[in-house]
Amino acid sequence: MTAAEQRVRETIIKHGPIRFDTLMTLALYEPEIGYYQTHMPGQDSDYQTSPTLTPWFGRLIARRLEQMWQQIESPDRFDVIEIGAGNAALAESAMDSLDGAFREALRWTFVEPFDPIRSAQVERMGADGTWVLTLEEIEPSTGCLLANEVLDNFPVRSFEIGIDTTFEIYIGLDDDRLVEILEPCDVARPELEVGDRFEINDHVDDWCKRAAAAIQHGFMLVIDYGDEEPALFTRRPAGTIVTYSQ
């Protein structure tokens, strides 16, 4: 049993069944034991992202950032605030591809709350970056807020379509086994069949407001992969959650 699973069990024993987003928070982000505290994308990881597959992703981002800088009349300082940078492959390949006036103006700040990942970023980037733990530490500046594959890692609530109602999925214990518990709720139902599942991310709006507040003048560049409703639900009637063995 992993430490994260043990923490989930302890939480259920103490508080009763937990919502699926609580399970995700504990499994992914619990201090010292959560998945994203101890794993990051790369060749030896469970998963890879575009920046770890090729330096061309970072080089393309660098070209776009330079265009943004030119759009706002090439200020002497242009801050890139990156959230969820992982192993900093995007930042490294972007900065390595730049020179001239824009490279002189560029300042790269990593928002990274997890010590092991922040240490790996510092080792890779050295003096080319600065680090903060939270968005709230940043003084609003001119530049770009950058987040690649961040929104799809937010904890989500999970639901199942019933005959006459929608059920929210909770996680509980039955004879020491983790089990799903379906509780009726009043969440609006997408056009799905009985037994189909869907998720809701309650955290996006608040995150977007907090992220936008870090940029006084400039841009937000948020990259992710998905679909629009209702195709998102009808294409994946079992739900969109993907997991890894650890």
Keywords for this entry:
five-stranded parallel beta sheet; 246 residues
Question: Your description of this structure?
Answer:
The protein is α/β, with parallel strands linked by helices. The chain contains ten helices and ten strands. Strands 1, 6, 7, 8 and 9 form a five-stranded antiparallel beta sheet that branches. Helix 1 runs antiparallel to helix 2 and helix 5 (55-71) packs across helix 6. The chain is globular, with a radius of gyration of 20 Å. The mean pLDDT is 91.
List the helices and strands and how they pair.
Layout lengths: L2 H13 L2 E2 H10 L5 H4 L11 H4 L1 H17 L6 E6 L5 H8 L3 H6 E6 L3 H11 L4 E3 L8 E8 L8 E5 L4 E9 L2 E9 L11 E4 L3 H9 L2 E9 L7 H5 L11
Parallel strand pairs: 2-3, 2-5, 3-4, 5-10
Antiparallel strand pairs: 1-7, 6-7, 6-9, 7-8
The unreliable regions are none
Helix amount: 25-40%
Structural category is: alpha/beta
Give the end-to-end Cα distance, rounded to a whole number of Å: 10 Å
Q: Strand-residue fraction?
A: 15-25%
Shape: globular
Structure annotation, total helices: 10
Radius of gyration: 20 Å
Q: How many strand segments? A: 10
Instruction: List the helices and strands in order.
Output: HEHHHHEHHEHEEEEEEHEH
Largest beta-sheet details? 5 strands, antiparallel
Compute the average pLDDT: 91
